[in-house]
Each structure stands twice: as structure tokens, then as C-alpha cells.
């Protein structure tokens, strides 16, 4: 299921469970069938560190959720810790290489793998007023390739996050935006959605790479986003192209 299909299906439901099931279905097609969603700043039912108790937005193995809660792993979970420090999606497999993990953090990752969460991707989701939410995707397959799936899972996470906020607006606080994108801005965003780089878009549209970057930055500014992926997601969500 592509992003446009996800958006159309998401618009037809007002149920948080149905929306989460849709996310799981889409991520399962990428080999990542275990998903957890929550907020690091709010106090609602899906918030972290209790996010592993929120049955509506988590389908991690029950035994792992119980152990995580009982041992209070939220205090030493390297995924939760790095989510507050990093602005871009990250792979669990890379945490030990890119950060000096403490013994407790390494233990959490190792036990998660033993519980069936063998490879993972976490997407920090930034909202207004400093709000921070997160979606984590995990795979039970040894040969899962999270790096290859990263871009698609990132876009899915943002789409789900916006749809969740529309159904439960108190969790994120939304308002109707009146935004007008130029045709060139729309063209650039369409090609970003296809995974093209600025250079590739420039070749396709027969303009310079700097011109492409100019249009993309304008679109990001208009939509109040800080990444191309978030910009594409928001534009799709608002029906701008």
C-alpha cells in the first residue's frame, strides 16, 4: 500500500484501533509487523514511558511489554533516550556503533532481540509547542533490512501521526491550515515522494539543483515542517497535490 492509499484509508476511519491496525498492516508489508506509538511529552493514554501498556497503539510481544514495565526499562532504554536527542529516524542496529551505550542500555537491546524484536526503526515525530511523539517499528526476521525500508517507514509514521491527531486532537492539537503551494513546489514534492534527490529532480524538471532546493525550502516553510518527508506527508494530508 502506497502513501496515498494509506491516507485515503485513514480518512475513512474514526477509530484509533482501526487506524493503528492499518499502520501495522502497511508496515508488515515492509517486514516490520511489530509497532509501538506514543508521546514523550503528553500525559494521555499513549504516552511514554508507559507506551508499552497502551494496547491500542502497541503490538509488541506481551511478555516483553510486561518485563519492560516490571523492570522499568524505560529509564535505561537507549531507544527512548536517543529519541529525545535525535531529529531524524534511526536504526536500533546502529545505536551501539554511533553511541557509547551503557551496560544497561545494551542489556535492553539484547533482551529485546531475544524477545523477537530483532531489528528496529524509530521515528521521532515533532509537533507544535515542543511536543515529541515516536513510532517504533520492529521485525522478528533475522534477515530484515531496516535501512532499505527506512524512508517508507518514516513516511508511514508521519502519516499515521497526523491521522491519529485528527481522531484524537487533544493528543497533538491541530488546526486547519490554509496553504497554497506553487505548481513548481508541488512538482518537486511529488518527485521527493518518489524518492528522488534534488539533483535528480533538477534533471527531470530541467532546472538547477539550487532551484529545486529553493522550491522545497519554500514548501517546507509554508507547511511549517523541518524535513522533506514531513513536508510531503503534510501536503498529502492537506490534499495539496
Helix and strand pattern: HHEHHEHHEEHHHHH
The low-confidence parts are 43-50, 170-177
Radius of gyration, whole Å: 18 Å
- Secondary-structure class: alpha+beta
Count of DSSP-assigned helices: 11
Can you summarize the main beta sheet? 4 strands, antiparallel
Task: Please report the total strand number as a whole number.
Answer: 4
Distance, first to last CA: 18 Å
Average the pLDDT over all residues and give the rounded result. Answer: 84
**Principal-axes shape call:** globular
- Order of neighbouring strands in the sheet with most strands: 1-4-3-2
Helix content: 40-55%
In percent terms, what proportion of residues is strand?
5-15%
InterPro entries: Sig_transdc_resp-reg_C-effctor, TF_LuxR_autoind-bd_dom, TF_LuxR_autoind-bd_dom_sf, Tscrpt_reg_LuxR_C, WH-like_DNA-bd_sf
Protein name: LuxR family transcriptional regulator
Organism: Bradyrhizobium barranii
Keywords: DNA-binding, Transcription, Transcription regulation
Features:
241 residues; alpha+beta; 4-stranded antiparallel beta sheet; 49% helix; TF_LuxR_autoind-bd_dom; DNA-binding; TF_LuxR_autoind-bd_dom_sf
Please summarize what this structure is.
The protein has 241 residues and is of the alpha+beta class. The protein has helices spanning 3-11, 16-28, 62-70, 78-83, 95-98, 103-114, 146-167, 183-193, 198-205, 209-223, 228-237; strands at residues 34-39, 90-91, 119-126, 132-139. A four-stranded antiparallel beta sheet has the order 1-4-3-2, covered by helices on one side.
Amino acid at each position: 500500500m502506497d502513501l496515498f492509499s494509506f491516507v485515503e484509508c485513514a480518512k475513512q476511519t474514526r477509530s484509533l484501533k482501526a487506524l493503528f491496525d492499518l499502520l501495522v498492516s502497511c508496515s508488515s508489508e515492509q517486514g516490520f509487523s511489530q509497532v509501538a506509538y506514543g508521546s514523550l511529552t503528553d500525559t494521555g493514554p499513549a504516552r511514554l514511558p508507559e507506551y508499552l501498556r497502551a494496547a491500542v497503539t502497541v503490538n509488541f510481544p506481551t511478555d516483553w511489554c510486561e518485563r519492560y514495565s516490571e523492570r522499568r526499562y524505560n529509564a535505561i532504554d537507549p531507544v527512548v533516550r536517543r529519541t529525545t536527542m535525535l531529529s531524524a529516524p534511526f536504526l536500533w542496529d546502529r545505536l551501539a556503533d554511533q553511541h557509547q551505550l551503557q551496560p544497561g542500555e545494551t542489556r535492553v537491546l539484547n533482551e529485546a532481540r531475544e524477545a523477537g524484536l530483532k531489528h528496529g526503526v524509530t521515528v521521532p515525530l515533532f509537533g507544535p509547542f515542543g511536543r515529541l511523539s515516536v513510532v517504533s517499528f520492529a521485525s522478528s526476521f533475522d534477515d530484515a533490512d531496516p535501512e532499505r525500508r527506512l524512508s517508507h517507514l518514516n513516511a508511514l509514521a508521519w502519516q499515521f501521526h497526523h491521522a491519529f491527531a485528527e481522531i484524537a486532537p487533544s493528543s497533538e492539537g491541530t488546526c486547519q491550515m490554509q496553504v497554497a503551494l506553487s505548481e513548481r513546489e508541488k512538482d518537486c514534492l511529488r518527485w521527493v515522494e518518489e524518492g528522488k534527490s534534488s539533483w535528480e529532480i533538477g534533471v527531470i524538471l530541467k532546472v538547477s539543483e539550487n532551484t529545486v532546493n529553493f522550491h522545497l525550502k519554500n514548501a517546507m516553510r509554508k507547511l511549517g515542517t523541518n524535513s522533506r518527508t514531513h513536508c510531503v506527508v503534510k501536503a498529502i494530508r492537506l490534499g495539496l497535490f
